[in-house]
């Protein structure tokens, strides 16, 4: 689904991504691990159009998407969530979900005067969809709560929920498990597995929690110093000498 070829991202003289090449199989939940500073987040940012690459190529199902901006990738079904959730704090959880699809009739001045009926219908449909998503994620009770007031783990669930408001095809998750308690982490794992099985989402997941990775990811790709060191099942990766060395060296 995604192919990254010899990707470089330099910050001045520093090579955060230094010739990374990898592929993500359609329908997989691919784990991306590696010591701190390995270049995982930078790689995500380049693939997701947040940062331009210094050189290299990214393709999505054969189409060159290198350097496309996030909104163009969003329309192709490529979404990225952030390690720190980017919720709209003063809006409710339901409203945070309802605003994801964009291009709504109520956004144009003309329609707010003349298209009231259409706006109301759209809003009803969006509200119903948002409520379905909240239910799927077992956070219906948070629907009317301000997003800025929910816990860190619940924000991660809400971010996952935002990807469900549109027809995502591939979702890049950056440390969904960071700072999340076990119960919520299980809910997040279940939600990812369900989205993968039932809606065919492909996932690429950066995560430090190896239990979480082992439970949901196959294959696992390990990066260090801006490059891919190894790919395989988590057990294979854990037994790989280069991987062990990379972790011990930090
Ligand atoms: P990881 O996600 O694997 O921990 P990162 O991609 O966050 O690694 O970072 C890789 C390296 O690139 C780190 O040494 C980090 O300090 C550096 N880096 C990341 N973003 C920038 C930036 N905007 N400017 C300079 N250096 C950066």
Write the layout of secondary structure elements.
Blueprint: E1 2-11, E2 14-24, E3 29-33, H1 40-47, E4 55-60, E5 63-64, H2 70-75, E6 78-80, H3 93-98, H4 109-114, H5 116-136, H6 152-164, E7 170-174, H7 182-198, E8 202-206, H8 210-216, E9 220-224, E10 227-232, H9 234-239, H10 241-248
Parallel strand pairs: 3-8, 3-9, 6-7, 7-8
Antiparallel strand pairs: 1-2, 1-4, 4-5, 9-10
InterPro entries: AAA+_ATPase (IPR003593), ABC_AA/LPS_Transport (IPR051120), ABC_transporter-like_ATP-bd (IPR003439), ABC_transporter-like_CS (IPR017871), BCA_ABC_TP_C (IPR032823), P-loop_NTPase (IPR027417)
Protein name: Amino acid/amide ABC transporter ATP-binding protein 1, HAAT family
Organism: Roseovarius litoreus
């Amino acid at each position: 689904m995604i192919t990254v070829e010899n990707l470089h991202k330099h910050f001045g003289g520093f090579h955060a991504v230094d010739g990374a090449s990898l592929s993500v199989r359609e329908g997989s939940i691919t784990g991306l691990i590696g010591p701190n500073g390995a270049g995982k987040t930078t790689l995500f940012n380049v693939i997701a159009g947040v940062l331009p690459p210094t050189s290299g190529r990214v393709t999505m199902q054969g189409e060159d998407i290198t350097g496309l901006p996030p909104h163009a990738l969003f329309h192709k079904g490529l979404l990225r969530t952030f390690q720190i959730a980017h919720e709209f704090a003063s809006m409710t959880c339901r409203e945070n979900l309802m605003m994801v699809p964009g291009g709504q009739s109520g956004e144009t001045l003309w329609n707010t005067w003349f298209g009231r009926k259409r706006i109301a219908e759209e809003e009803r449909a969006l509200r119903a969809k948002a409520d379905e998503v909240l239910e799927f994620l077992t956070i219906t009770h948070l629907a009317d709560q301000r997003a800025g007031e929910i816990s860190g783990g619940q924000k991660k669930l809400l971010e996952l929920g935002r990807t469900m408001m549109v027809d995502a095809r591939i979702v890049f998750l950056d440390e969904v498990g960071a700072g999340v308690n076990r119960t919520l982490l299980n809910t997040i794992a279940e939600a990812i597995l369900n989205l993968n099985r039932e809606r065919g989402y492909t996932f690429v997941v950066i995560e430090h929690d190896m239990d979480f990775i082992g439970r949901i990811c196959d294959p696992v790709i390990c990066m260090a110093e801006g490059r891919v060191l190894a790919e395989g099942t988590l057990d294979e990766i854990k037994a790989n000498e280069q991987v062990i060395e990379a972790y011990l060296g930090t």
